[in-house]
Amino acid sequence: MDKSEFESKIERIKQLEAQVAKNKKLITQQEKDIKEIQDSSAIRAVADEIETRKRALNRARRRFEEKKEKFYNEDLDKYEKKLLSLKKKNLEEKKIVTQQKSPYESLIVDLIKICKDPVKGTVMRDPVSLPSGEVYDADTAKKIRKGKITTFNEPKVPNMFREDKFTNRLIKIVEKYEKAEEKLKPAPAPSNKEENKI
SS3 for 38? Predict the structure, then answer.
């Protein structure tokens, strides 16, 4: 069962529940009407009609409960198993992708070289630009804001960690590897005109 079928069944269940509630409300109203009727024969006729409707309603409710129970016990279980199967397949595909060697390994190495926090000396997992334009790891930036680290705006912070220069270095490195990748692409096949010339 796909998602749309699953949702349509849920919608059908809601409709049946609404119908049961509507019928119940109608019967309640009819019971009130009976109390207001003084004629005994009219009361008996209406009472018989209510009893007939009550029995029909109870039969419908039992059938509905049986279908509802079957749906939740069987169909929902199948749908849940299908979801688990898809999740497992997705994880296996991700594992295959991560095991493959990335063509950008050297790019990543170069990026790590310039992405080290100037205070901690470790790679910035979450680079943050402060109002001064200097780039730090989020943890370092937080300590600077609280005044726990006093390197904020001090000359000893390398200029390369100004946001604009930091960004330019990243751009240049990426452009360098894009050009290298372009050179590795196979040459385009000769067009029909060139083949005719040959």
Answer: coil
